[in-house]
Amino acid sequence: MAASVRTAGAQRFVRHQNIVAPPSTWRGRPWRWRERAGTANLHTMGSVIRAVRFVAAATLGLLCAISSSSAGSAAAYADVRKAFQEAYARATTNVSDTGATDSDSLKSYPLYPYLQAARIQQAFTGGGTDLDQVDKRAGEFLAQYGQQPVTRNLRHAWLDSLARRTQWNQFLAVYRDAGASEAARCQSFVARIELGKTEGLAPEIAKQWLTPHSLPECDRPFAWLKENGVLTTQLIEERAHLALDNNNATFARQIIQQLPTEAAAPLFQWAGLLESPTKGIDALIASPSTPIEGPALLAGWKRLTRMDAQAAKERYTKFITARGLNKEAASQYALALALGLAWNRDPDALQYFDLVAAGDLDDIAREWWARAALWSKDWKTASRAIAAMTEANRQTARWRYWTARIDEESQDSQTAQAIYKGLLVDDNYYSAMAAARLNQAVAPHPQPIPVNADLMATLERMPAFERARELFLCGMRSEAIAEWQFGSETLPTESRTQSIRLAAEWGWYEQAVTVATAQHVFNDYSLLYPRPYDAQVNAAAHLAQLAPEIVYGVVRQESLYRIDAVSNAGARGLMQLQPATARSTARFYKRPSPALTDLFDPYINTALGASRLRMLLDEFDDQIPVALAGYNAGPNAVIRWLPQEPLDSDIWIENIPYNETRGYVQRILWHSLMFTWLRTKGHAQETAAWLTPIHPIHHPEQADRVAESDRATAADAKRH
Question: The domain spanning residue 614 has which CATH number?
């Protein structure tokens, strides 16, 4: 696609046989997996996880050294920082350490309270300790530090300990409802029940009852609610409805069982529709007289359209007829089917959008109506859909661009060009696409944050920011963010803006970008598009025959430069590789399987990530948007999304059904453009290649190789 993400001088990416060097040259750093004894196992004990956390922190050594050299106070703390890390590691891995040998420099270190808190937490869980004395230490600590972030984990640990020991009076004295977890709140209810402090308690428990998921910590309070006649049929029905609205049919059944038979029947019917929508809808078609509540019927139909839109399409007419739905009542069912078909890029989506009443369309539905029309190149319908959007939505870069595209396709080139030119003042994917349509190079509009050295120095001296910096340098990211937020609460706008530069100078790039986004600062490209891993990224890009800028684009989007990043789904490192994906990629290139900890090594992670992207490019005929979509959503999903014949790339990208993946592809294209613009010292960038049509893949044998590698790796994982 874009010249900015292609290897310099290459008209197309190099084919598979030229991607990797001969095996004898694969002995360089990027592919030298660490030797392992047995299988890595990071989930056996919390202590092991915490130990690995400090291994990851040690990997930050170069970053810490660079950051320290930019701030005298950080450099001055270098030795004591190491002593703190060692002591903190002992405290969080249940190694006994009373602190008797702590040096004066350690005691005066800004993070010493975190070490003290960790030792108190250790005493609560270590056993063999006079817990009354530990309670006293914890109380004195919280009294000294109040609501500072350093108290949060200790307060939670203390509350857990007090609950286990049924020390309810002290529990309530320590408990704070603000920021409390659901479990802690439930424990506070238990405390009040046990102490007979139940005035005003029933409404609070009833409010917690209305949770759409299981909450075993509240079993005792919920039982108390029932014993006191407050757990009414209405409350039970409300919770069941919440669970059903969240498609949690299994949990809903548990709640429904508490209802009288007559009240439970329609809700069980609802749950059955969610669990087996095809079977349930077919039964309702076959038996038109079977009663069913309207919300349950619509929920079951929506479930079917999401799971199997084609099956829903085949049943639509029979279903509407059998249930006796008039045009107005059928509108919401038509909308659900239209959306399901649009997500599947089925051209029949348009005929069902035509059946939807205008009042049932919100902006999300109108956007998918427009996308379905764009896919079918029905420009008039696309124009109608955009015109029906709210003014605020129509004026976004996305729909201004598509308005221009429609005008262009409708032979109104003058209006189209005027809109395209108006988009050039923005800096985003759509402005770059508009530039391509105008056959112009992209010239971004940098807006550097003015440097206020005095203000930055003042910020850096603030205790909360000093603690945030040290926590960051020690690899304690969540604690660092808490301190940063604590210090930022009362800052004026100018100070918050300067704090972006402060975080960047520390090498805390993800925080710099996060704060910049919150402050609506997007165009300081030198600040927000750093290249801290040039050695690793350049090596990986060379290995995979990619431009470094596309690799950096993935790094920035996936992890915001965090080498120790771990997603909720378990993806790790700079390029957010799932362990199974990393192993599959290594298998594909006949390299040793990486350990979990290897994925936190920037060399290994970027080598594997770039190679994975190369695999996907080969699988999808060097089509960068398609490969990027596959990196995010998986190749199997992307294969389903490919058109049957060549299609304009902007239309294909716009119709990616996953919102996350669509935004992911668009942002990485823009990121790579900005990295190239910075590398070329402000040279305007051509994006004409972004217009290259997306086409079906022409070599299914490559896809078979990738799929076989993934299957073999999955099979190995099951055996182990």
Answer: 1.10.530.10
